[in-house]
Amino acid sequence: MKTAKKVAVVIPSYKVRKHILAVIDGMGEEVDCIYVVDDCCPEKTGDFVVENCKDPRVKVIRHQVNQGVGGAVMSGYVAAINDDMDVIVKVDGDGQMDPVLIPQFIVPIINGEADYTKGNRFFDLEEIRAMPKVRLFGNAVLSFMTKLSSGYWDLFDPTNGFTAIHRDVARHLPYEKISRRYFFETDILFRLNTLRAVVVDIPMDAKYGDEVSNLKISRVVGEFLFKHIRNFAKRIFYNYYLRDMSIASFELPVGVLLFVFGAVFGALNWFHSFESGVAAPAGTVMLSALPVILGGQLILAFIGYDIASVPKTALHSRLKNFTGKR
């Protein structure tokens, strides 16, 4: 499927020498340029591609120091933007992502329906049986954490690295601030939300062969939790106090204060009653319960507002219109 838009594919490469040529061979005619980013690979994947790949679309970018998957992808983004590509797709080099699906990722962007698309391996409940159970559980936990921190409540499978982005949106990303290692895919969602970009999930099936994943979810859950909490706090400040204010800007802090007051006050009085053996008066119980109930309702109201605030209009379309007016 050849399009009027120029499409680039970025392949971060680290210990994928065994699969990289097959991944490149699978690229269809819709792809105009392929950037293989050798992230200081000990297998010298970049040299291997130069010596064995004859596809004229391939360009090899080499890192002298390993920068992680995020650093490799951003190097590819910069190169694609400099070469005036319109849509930039990111595909892993381990063969888990089928290049045949690339048209499904780029069409929503070309049609102005999305700024960024990403794969979702959880769409077909029958197919996810092929996913290792530990990875399945870990992705479910990370998906919920990502919904809170990024604000994209309608997305799932946040660690999925099969993505596509419009050039004009990629150009506005703060590359120096984005996490360069395994938190890259989830961190970029947070950055996209602060830009009010539209992100769409694309159903896909994962392919599991003899590849070895470098990401061990059990090792990164703690690190990811800290970064999610940080991003959540930043997003709330940016979207509800710095950029704009709404009723939700008051619901969250008032709800949290009431809930915490009621919970602490109730716990202290319960402990006092337990120690003294004297039941707390009805008024004390109500003074504990009422703030908790009201606070919980306000927090739920904020979450409802936040869910309804997921961006709906593609950012690159708005940027185009703005540029045209100027």
Written account of the structure:
The chain has 326 residues and is of the alpha/beta class. It folds into 2 domains: 7-232, Spore Coat Polysaccharide Biosynthesis Protein SpsA, Chain A (Alpha-Beta Complex), CATH 3.90.550; 245-325. Helices cover 51% and strands 11% of the residues. The protein is built from 11 helices and 7 strands. The protein has helices at 20-25, 45-52, 68-82, 102-110, 133-150, 167-170, 184-194, 217-242, 247-276, 282-308, 315-325; strands spanning 7-13, 33-38, 58-62, 87-90, 116-120, 163-166, 199-203. The chain has a 7-stranded mixed sheet with strand order 3-2-1-4-6-5-7, sandwiched between helices. Strand 1 (7-13), helix 1 (20-25) and strand 2 form a beta-alpha-beta unit. Helix 5 packs parallel to helix 8 (217-242) and helix 9 runs antiparallel to helix 10 (282-308). The relative contact order is 0.12.
Distance between the termini: 34 Å
Discrete helix count: 11
CATH superfamily of the largest domain: Spore Coat Polysaccharide Biosynthesis Protein SpsA, Chain A
Report the structural category. alpha/beta
Q: Which stretches are low in confidence, meaning pLDDT under 50 for 5 or more residues running? A: none
Count of spatially separate domains: 2
Q: What is the mean predicted local confidence, pLDDT?
A: 88
CATH top-level class of the largest domain:
Alpha Beta
Query: Strand content of the residues, in percent?
Result: 5-15%
**From N to C, what is the helix and strand string?**
EHEHEHEHEHEHHEHHHH
Helix content: 40-55%
- Largest β-sheet summary: 7 strands, mixed
Radius of gyration: 23 Å
- CATH architecture grouping of the largest domain: Alpha-Beta Complex
CATH topology of the largest domain, anyone? Spore Coat Polysaccharide Biosynthesis Protein SpsA, Chain A
Shape: elongated
Count of beta strands: 7
Reading side by side through the largest sheet, how are the strands ordered? 3-2-1-4-6-5-7
